[in-house]
Design brief:
This protein is an alpha/beta fold and 319 residues long. The chain has 2 domains: 218 residues, 3-Layer(aba) Sandwich (Rossmann fold); 65 residues, Alpha-Beta Plaits, CATH 3.30.70. The protein is 37% helix and 27% strand. The chain contains 11 helices and 14 strands. A 6-stranded mixed β-sheet has the order 6-7-8-3-9-10, with helices on both faces. Strands 2-1-4-5 form a 4-stranded antiparallel β-sheet. Strands 12-13-11-14 form a 4-stranded antiparallel β-sheet, covered by helices on one side. Helix 4 packs across helix 5. The C terminus is likely disordered. Bound molecules: adenosine-5'-triphosphate and magnesium ion (MG). The site of magnesium ion has 4 residues, from helix 1.
Length: 319
Amino acid sequence: MTAPAIRARDLTKRYGDVQALDGLSLTVDSGEFFGLLGPNGAGKTTFINTLVGLVHADGGEATVFGHDVEADYREARNAIGLAPQEYNVDRFFPIHEVLEHKAGYHGVPGDVATERAEDALKTVGIWDKRDTRFDWLSGGMKRRFMLARALVSDPDLLILDEPTAGVDVQLRRDLWEIINRMNDAGTTILLTTHYIEEAERLCDRVAIMDDGRKVEVATPDDLMARGSDTIEIGLADPSVTPPTLTVDGVQNTRIEDGQLLVTAAGGSSVAPSVMRELEANGHTVTSLDVRRASLEEVFVDLTREDHGGDTDVAMEVEA
Ligand SMILES: Nc1ncnc2c1ncn2[C@@H]1O[C@H](COP(=O)(O)OP(=O)(O)OP(=O)(O)O)[C@@H](O)[C@H]1O
Ligand SMILES: [Mg+2]
């Protein structure tokens, strides 16, 4: 398959005064594990809903494996397994029946649908709950079920809208493992999450969205390389004022809990020079550690830029 899994061009969607999508363009390659990050209200769910036909965009276009999401709605929709952010489940049927119906809706014949439902429930570990209705599942089991329902049509593109919101550590790891396995087997994954660390661990590339637009798209490593690293230095002669450093790349120095903290772009390449300068000035370095910028820090910087004006206003009011 050579067509990208998702290609969106200039998508726009307005709700009253809110421009939920404001010229969003984004390409997700076939086979990628792609993260979509952005603050609440950035337009992530709206974008996903345009792909599955739940939202009709005002402008622009989107294709899924080359199928236009409006003109070739069926083909596009059949390629997608969606675990939505909000539960929209038929609550009155046993969950295995809900899955069989879902597979049937995607054109899977009856006996195959029964097998698929069984496989999906076993994959997510709630096969023993197959005769239970959705309402009676625990919160974590509901999350597992949503993934099972996304898997039952054997999709080429799996879209997970905050699949791990509010789940415990064990379940989060289970879900990671399941979706990693799916991706290894060739399924394209689009994941939204507010656990930035989750995107850092799982995704090949991430897009950062804000105000209905794409702010950035890159690998987690490339994004993290843009942040400032922190060099944590223990000194034999701790002081209350940080020593002066003239090394190129140093952005800031401060003393915290008796340690000298130096922020710098590319911390590990700057650290040796920092150490030499300190020792040349009579300090004795007792420990040194470089803490890399996290994706979370870079994310906060990138999404805060847009709202710089708001922050200033808030500060003025406080003062
Ligand atoms: N059906 C709707 N009617 C009116 N406004 C809507 C509707 N759906 C979304 N919006 C608005 O569009 C904007 C984008 O919402 P969306 O749900 O896409 O954000 P999101 O990035 O998924 O956020 P979250 O991280 O909170 O899930 C928000 O301002 C939201 O209030
Ligand atoms: Mg959302």
